[in-house]
Amino acid sequence: MPVAIITGASKGLGRALAAALAERGWDLVLDARTESVLGDTARELAGHGGRVHAVAGDVTDAEHRGELIARARALGGLDLLVNNASALGAEPLVRLDALALEGLRRALETNVVAALGLVQQALPLLRASRAGGAVINVSSDAGAEAYETWGGYGASKAALDQLSAVLGAEEPALRVWAVDPGDMGTDLYRAAVPDDADPRPLPGTVVPAFLRLLDERPVSGRYDAPSLLVAS
Q: Quick one: CA dihedral 211, 215, 217, 218, positive or negative?
């Protein structure tokens, strides 16, 4: 069975994608910071038949990242790495003139530095994947558009996009996709903009876009889920 590591997998998009892969028989290594919630998710997904390892921790911790890789290796290798864990930098979001620099550092450390750290540790297994290794870095339209109060988070996602593009050029045998999932009703969004009462699509509605990438394996690059869904 193919093996995937998914960070930020206890809720939201990470959980929805993990559930879809579990239904396809994938073996999973799931990360999140809250052990109890992650454990509940892992137990539910294990009912689909694939093996599920839940590893609670913070992706900014190098030892924790190493444990994720070790669990994948124990499952037989690694075919897909999904860097989904994210930090906003401020909750709720604030304008740049009020953004604490420590918050910006946290966003960059989680969304960029930790993502690269995990990629670096995962590359030997991804290169050895018989199915063809792939990396999905979950991006945001805030990394490409200028939205008030989204400056710190958007800057981190723009950096992640560039990291993804360079990795794709440096690793032509792999697939490296930066994916903007579009608007979603997640805990992260509610923490970012708690006063927004407009309903947002559930994360599960964009999962078919991610599955399409895995099925069709287009060239490395930046993709947005709404376009992939329209074209499917």
A: negative
Cα(54)–Cα(200) distance, integer angstroms: 28
The residue type found at 175 is: R
Query: 184-231, pLDDT tens digit by residue?
Result: 999 999 999 999 888 899 999 999 999 999 999 999 999 999 999 985
Catalytic residues: 153
The side-by-side arrangement of strands in the sheet containing 80-83 is: 52-56, 27-32, 3-6, 80-83, 134-138, 175-180, 221-224
Name the band, by pLDDT with cuts 50, 70 and 90, for residue 48: confident
For the chain, domains (ranges, CATH) are 3-231 (3.40.50.720)
Structure tokens at 188: 């992260």
Question: How far is 153 from 232, CA to CA, in rounded Å?
Answer: 30
* pTM beyond cutoff 0.70: yes
